[in-house]
Fold:
Amino acid sequence: MQHNDCSVFSGVTDVKGDRSQRPSQQKDPDMYLHVIDRDNKGIVVRGAKIHQTGSLCANWGLIVPTREMRKEDKDYGRLLCYPYRCRRIGSRLRPGHPRSQSSG
Structure:
């Protein structure tokens, strides 16, 4: 990484949904990044990570679980490292919220 002057962002924070429930107990499984398929080439994951501010200028993404995982959460406890410009991984950008003008 240093030799090639690459930068890395970390994807840690999942959307989480109902925080009183484990990842495997969510009504919507996409509240946490999770495995949806496996084949001889590897795994396919789906879900969301939020607050990836540094991702827009990074070369690589390092995705880690946001909390401890138990046996029943095995499809949610994945660590991934990938080239950020990978065509099969998407990012959605949302404009920032306009700052309110203070009167005074």
In short: The mean pLDDT is 82. DSSP finds no helices and five strands in the chain. The longest strand covers residues 34-39.
